[in-house]
């Protein structure tokens, strides 16, 4: 069980909303989110209801303003707990849609996709072990995309508007 508290204003001020599990639409609880306190669990936050829009992965800690979680704005409208994962990690990335073209398999973090894969774009992937976070830019920066185990035939299936991925990492759970 996790616990996260959202605050309308910076530095944990203003109206707050506490969540202990999945919440698909928090729009009626607050109009903006400028600070967050994660008391337990590992969370994926989404800009829009129903787990859409910009995504952010947060683990235990205090985030006094949205820049602290690399937020693009003060909009958080849905969230879910990231499931615990014990064991190995594995992902296959592909140059083209539908698992075609050049393929490369990873079990470790990749700080620069182009250096390792020789392509700037990932059009499809298969996550067969663990949970992963894609980043638009190298060195784990920029827009984030959370991937659960499964097949993603097109980049739009992980929520991206472009296939450009600069880096990716395993989602480790911290207690």
From TrEMBL:
GO MF term list: structural constituent of eye lens
Question: What's the subunit arrangement here?
Answer: Monomer.
UniProt similarity note: Belongs to the beta/gamma-crystallin family.
Q: Which residues form the Beta/gamma crystallin 'Greek key' domain?
A: 2-40, 41-83, 89-129, 130-172
The alphabetized list of GO BP terms reads: lens development in camera-type eye; visual perception
Protein origin, superkingdom:
Eukaryota
Name the SUPFAM superfamilies for this protein. Answer: gamma-Crystallin-like
- The protein's name: Beta/gamma crystallin 'Greek key' domain-containing protein
Tell me the SMART domains matching this sequence: XTALbg (SM00247)
